[in-house]
């Protein structure tokens, strides 16, 4: 009798556990209705300068890692020179202060590659130039930029 129950109950449990629950399919319909407040959703698009600064941040993260490991520095990334001509979100921000800070930043960055023995000091000067500029313009990224400093 016990064998009969085991033979009957076990396969039933096995079959029940393998059943997949089918969920109802909900089809999304596109709407042209504006969001609350009457505004339509618009995707944020980075300016050339914002995209360049993001790339420079990534490049400097990699450079920091190479400096800390004592690896070869490599070549100066020429795309950094676009800082002088990249289109900004607000063109009025491309003033004399920005141009001076960009010049300091590029000079410090170039020194890293020209004088790799003092790469750490030159690197930190480049980061300092970023922070000085952002203190005068856009404060948002300063905490993130400070993480690049080499202690």
Topology readout:
Layout: H1 2-17, H2 48-69, H3 96-114, H4 119-136, H5 142-146
Helix pairs in contact: 3-4
Question: Care to describe what's here?
Answer:
- The chain is mostly helical and 151 residues long.
- The chain is 53% helix and 0% strand.
- The chain has five helices and no strands.
- Helix 3 packs antiparallel against helix 4.
- The longest helix is centred in the middle third of the chain and has 22 residues.
- The relative contact order is 0.10.
Q: What does this entry show, briefly?
A:
The chain has helices at residues 2-17, 48-69, 96-114, 119-136, 142-146. It has 151 residues and is an all-alpha fold.
Keywords:
single chain; mainly alpha
Structural class: mainly alpha
Helix content: 40-55%
Rg from alpha-carbon coordinates? 29 Å
- The chain-level mean pLDDT equals 83
Uncertain residue segments: none
Overall geometric form = flat
- Helix and strand succession? HHHHH
């Amino acid at each position: 009798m016990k064998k009969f129950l085991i033979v009957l109950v076990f396969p039933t449990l096995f079959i029940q556990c393998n059943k997949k629950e089918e969920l109802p399919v909900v089809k999304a319909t596109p709407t042209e209705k504006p969001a609350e407040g009457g505004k339509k959703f618009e995707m944020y698009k980075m300016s050339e300068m914002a995209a360049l600064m993001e790339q420079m941040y990534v490049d400097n993260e990699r450079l920091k890692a190479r400096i800390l490991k004592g690896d070869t520095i490599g070549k100066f990334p020429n795309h950094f020179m676009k800082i002088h001509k990249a289109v900004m979100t607000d063109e009025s921000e491309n003033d004399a202060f920005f141009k001076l800070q960009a010049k300091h930043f590029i000079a410090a960055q170039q020194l890293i590659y020209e004088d790799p023995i003092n790469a750490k000091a030159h690197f930190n000067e480049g980061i300092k130039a970023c922070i000085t500029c952002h203190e005068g313009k856009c404060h948002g990224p300063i905490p993130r930029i400070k993480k690049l400093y080499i202690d």
